[in-house]
Amino acid sequence: MKSSMFEPEVVQELALKEGVCVRPLLNRVTDRQTGDTTVVVMPCRSTRESRCPSCANAARRLRIQQCAEGWHLDQEPTGPEQEPEAATDELEEEEDVVDEEEVPERRVRSTRRRSDVADLPLKPTENRTIGAVFEGNLGRRYRPSMFVTLTLPSYGSIATGRGVPIDPSSYDYRTAALDALHFTKLLDRWIQNLRRCAGFKVQYFGAIEAQRRLAAHFHVALRGAIPRSILRKVTRATYAQVWWPSCDEPVYVDRVPVWDGVDYLDPDTSIPLTTWEDAMAELDEDPHAKPAHTLSFGRQVDIKGLLGGTPDADRSVRYLTKYLTKAVAETYTQAEVFDAEYEAHIDRLHDEVRYLPCTPSCANWLRFGIQPKQAGPGLQPGRCSSAAHDRENLGVGGRRVQVSRGWSGKTLSDHRADRAAVVKKVLEEAGYTAPDADRMSAETLATDGEPRYLWQTVHLPPQKASEAIITSVLERRRWRNEYDRAKAAQVSTGPPVENHSATDGEVEREE
Hints:
Residues 72-116, 485-511 are annotated as: Disordered. It holds the Pfam family RepSA. It comes from Intrasporangium calvum (strain ATCC 23552 / DSM 43043 / JCM 3097 / NBRC 12989 / NCIMB 10167 / NRRL B-3866 / 7 KIP). This is Replication initiator protein. By secondary structure, the chain is an alpha+beta fold. The protein folds into 2 domains: 3-50 and 413-509, no CATH class; 74-250 and 289-342 and 385-407, 2-Layer Sandwich (Alpha-Beta Plaits), CATH 3.30.70. The protein contains 10 helices and 17 strands. It has helices spanning 8-18, 53-71, 173-181, 183-198, 228-237, 276-285, 311-320, 340-355, 412-429, 462-493; strands at 25-31, 37-42, 93-94, 134-135, 141-142, 145-151, 204-210, 216-222, 239-242, 258-259, 264-265, 274-275, 293-296, 301-306, 370-371, 401-403, 453-458. A 6-stranded mixed beta sheet has the order 3-16-7-8-6-14, with helices on both faces. Strands 2-1-17 form a 3-stranded antiparallel beta sheet, covered by helices on one side. Helix 1 (8-18) packs parallel to helix 10, helix 3 packs across helix 8 (340-355) and helix 9 (412-429) packs across helix 10 (462-493).
């Protein structure tokens, strides 16, 4: 093979064409039993197309499968409840989350609803997660589900089709930033309210995306039919309050509090800043205290009823997951076209997001004269480690995908294993040896009871890394050729099968 083939640009183009990871993780695996050493190439599994299109597309296909498999069930899922998985890259799977207000580490506030919002139409809850069956003409029975889109309110007039404020000076960037940072709290509250009003244990698969104006919105698939009037009432009646100390006026802008080993001190007076615990206690004791921020949905609510197995349902699954491979700020930008006004809009929103607190332990509390919860050395306003503050995320640093525990009865790892099992079965039935993903697992034990294989990260020079990518490409081609031949043999010898699905035509490209 000519050396020109190992040029990084050529190798990356080849990897993208074959659906191979462009920034693989290299590991040296030593077999303690035999002494043999092997370099194993593993995909990075990034969910961002700007970092690795191949892995991002594989992650999206997996989400498509997960969404489609749990949406239109006609029987209760029987698998174990899903547990929140460890975060991998930016795209995470989160489950039903209890709001911070409900954590019993401090005084519980009154649950009385605000007087300026609509009452919730409460309904007794049936012990089911699947939707009701309806009977139509000629005795036809069907079980519809819902597809809903929720948006945030307006922060100022936007130029049509461009996503930039007509008057940036009057656009409410601060509220937009706070809404983005706490959007998931509002979604959690909406799901809780919906379950109280729908009459059954509603299950959901939703994705947070960005509108062109950069405000977050939520596409969600709901299993079962819910009256549109109920959905609209619940949306109007849902709000979330953030009971934190005030972060309206920054105290330290040009100065930075100093860490003395125990507390953060005022840089001029050396007086310790108020601790998080004291600030919250003061808030609890104030009978006239108001939440630091209150957020609610905008007026626009899009609601559709869909039947499983229809083209509209398949299209909705793909639409729901369309932008999961892009960061919030990347959603509507194009590498080949630079829009100065749009970039300035992103910068102004990022300036707000960067310095507002995201959690009780956020370093930005120092900017407002409060020591963060569990404060330690090295904290500096504007440098919180949370991805929510990054320019690419604009307040939405995680939880882009939200899935209820009872959606499909499977974890994301289970769905990934299902895809691999389909490929393995087809190959083995055709007489091919399927690749064993666990052949060098760290869980495999040697005769002494210790792990047989020792894994060590390897950092190779660009030339060697390119060779490793090409090796992965050749291996992928071999697997695909074997799989294609195995499928052809299965079609020619087996009975007719129905293979239409939301992931049709994609499984052969899975890692």
